[in-house]
Amino acid sequence: MKIKSHKLRDAVVIALVAGASTATANAQQATNLDRIEVTGSRIRQVDTETAQPVLSINRAAIEKSGFRTVADVLQNISAAGSPAISRSEPLSSGEAVGGFYINLRNLGAERTLVLVDGKRLGASVSGLQDVSQIPSAIVERIDVLKDGASSIYGSDAMAGVINIITRKNFQGLGANAYVGQYGEGDGQKTS
């Protein structure tokens, strides 16, 4: 009587059993990754590889500065033009009155793109984006791309891009008080 050898069948069974045990071990080791938001490039690279790297202002720096609005924070960055924030004339009329508009690299406020969580901030009829309406209390981080990014974002981003990342998992209550005083040519502000 001959005993048939089934070497091929045995090898396939062993391979399937080994593969199933490896897949079970890998499924148990799955990790959760945090969400990452990228500003300014569709090309994977290190931040310092560009001539003008992305300036990132985190929540701790914003709180330490004591500024109330995003306009106040951005007025003090090194990439801002002169004036850093274009303020409209208080006695003029029109849709751009009373706003704060970012002017990066002295190319004009209409050449700087402002994003909130990666989406364009709504603009006025003249195409300007008012950042004075964004309180610093809701901001997690501000990314400033100090170089032209029109190839990625369009002609609105010739001077640069500002991406305002808001806080996502805020629980509780926050309060801030602001007092101003004016008299005889001097002004005093306390926050």
Automatic annotation (TrEMBL):
What does the entry list under GO cellular component?
Answer: cell outer membrane
What are the alphabetically sorted keywords of the record?
Cell outer membrane, Membrane, Signal, Transmembrane, Transmembrane beta strand, Transport
Kindly give the membrane topology term recorded for this protein.
Answer: Multi-pass membrane protein
Which InterPro entries does the UniProt record give? Plug_dom (IPR012910), Plug_dom_sf (IPR037066), TonB-dep_rcpt-like (IPR039426)
Question: Per the annotation, which location comes first and is thus the protein's main one?
Answer: membrane
| PROSITE patterns reported for this sequence | TONB_DEPENDENT_REC_3 (PS52016)
* Domain named TonB-dependent receptor plug: residues: 49-161
Q: Where in the cell is it found?
A: Cell outer membrane
Leader sequence range is: 1-25
Q: Does the keyword Transport apply?
A: yes
- Database matches in PANTHER family: PTHR47234, TONB-DEPENDENT RECEPTOR
Q: Which family does it belong to?
A: Belongs to the TonB-dependent receptor family.
Name used for this protein in its record = Vitamin B12 transporter BtuB
Species assigned in the record: Stenotrophomonas maltophilia (Pseudomonas maltophilia)
Q: Which gene encodes it?
A: btuB_8
